[in-house]
Amino acid sequence: MSEQPQTSGESTLTVVLALVVNLAIAITKAIAGVLTGSAAILSEAAHSVADTFTEALLLTALRRSDRPADRRHPFGYGKERYFWSLLAAVSIFASGAVFAFYEGFRTVFGAPEEQTRPLVGYIVLGVAFVLESVSWTQAFRQVRSQSAEHGHSFWDFLRTSDDPTVKTVFLEDSAALIGLLLAVSGLGLHQLTGSSVWDGLASLAIGALLATVAYILARTNRGLLIGRQADPVVVKAIWRRLASEPEVDAVVDVLTMLIGTDRVLLCARLDFDDALTASDLERACVRISAELHTEFPDLDEVFLEPVPRTDPELRRRVLERYGF
Questions:
Q1: First-to-final CA distance of the chain
Q2: What are 223-229's contacts with CB under 8 Å, separation 24+?
Q3: Domain positions in the chain
């Protein structure tokens, strides 16, 4: 658990940087959208507003999830990070994708619109791309650093990470860069062809992009809220470690659940040597628990349950869970 404060601090820096960048970009895009009459730029302004709300929700997630355990919440508040991150995904869809779809349909199927001051749009979108790149670079560096620490490839870590804040920032910044390219394309094609349909199509593409990101993030946080198991690599290592204990005849079952970022709840059902006395069993459980905490720092709570491996009901439940 010693690495958690450092990781949390880096996540906070990533989120704060993204918030400041998106707030500045949202204002400039909104002004440019009004001056140029571009639906794509207005959609991008809504995109940045959604991202700003998202960062505020992520900061709330970081602050509230770090509270210590208490009587009402004995396993702590780690899952609050997943809840607020889920709201962030909803924010991206509600205030970003929906507005982009509205602007797109209005422009494509409405009366043709004249383009004004396209140069302003190009300048604002170019500056926004530079600023978004700064935020994206910080998020990319954090994902790459954490993936190396956990022994995963970049994309595997992004897919399985239990820290939704950095994943949210990375995906929304990536979507922002792609969205800016779409907006430039719509603005340029409108200028070249004189048809505002291209601007509307770019807005629709931005809406589809935001909806996709919102869906990915919502699905990720839904799984974490329901209760996802720890990294399978860690689970297998714990299983092997328990099986190697001299007092353990067999490992019957290992249950894990993520209860926060870098926090794992472990319940292991073990068939101990029948020759052990009650005091021997107690001392073995205390020692094994301490060794597990030392070897696997992410373990927050460890429960060891002595059970007979031949118990038919327990065996049935284990077989049903793993589909054997």
A1: 34
A2: 224/79, 224/82, 224/162, 224/164, 224/258, 225/79, 225/82, 225/83, 225/86, 227/257, 227/258, 228/162, 228/257, 228/258, 229/255, 229/256, 229/257, 229/258
A3: 4-226, 232-322
Global model pTM greater than 0.90: no
Q: Which two tokens stand for residue 323?
A: 């589909």
Sheet holding 299-306, edge to edge: 248-260, 263-272, 299-306
Average pLDDT of the chain to the nearest whole number? 86
Length of the chain in terms of residues written? 324
Distance (Å, rounded) from C-alpha 199 to C-alpha 14?
32
User: pLDDT for 200-225, tens place per residue?
Assistant: 999 999 999 989 999 998 998 998 99
| CB of 75 closer than 8 Å to CB of 182 | no
Distance CA 164, CA 253 (A): 28
Pick the CATH number of 232-322 from 3.40.190.10, 3.40.50.2300, 2.30.42.10, 3.30.70.1350: 3.30.70.1350
The three-class DSSP label of residue 266 is strand
Q: What is 4-226's CATH superfamily?
A: Cation efflux protein transmembrane domain (1.20.1510.10)
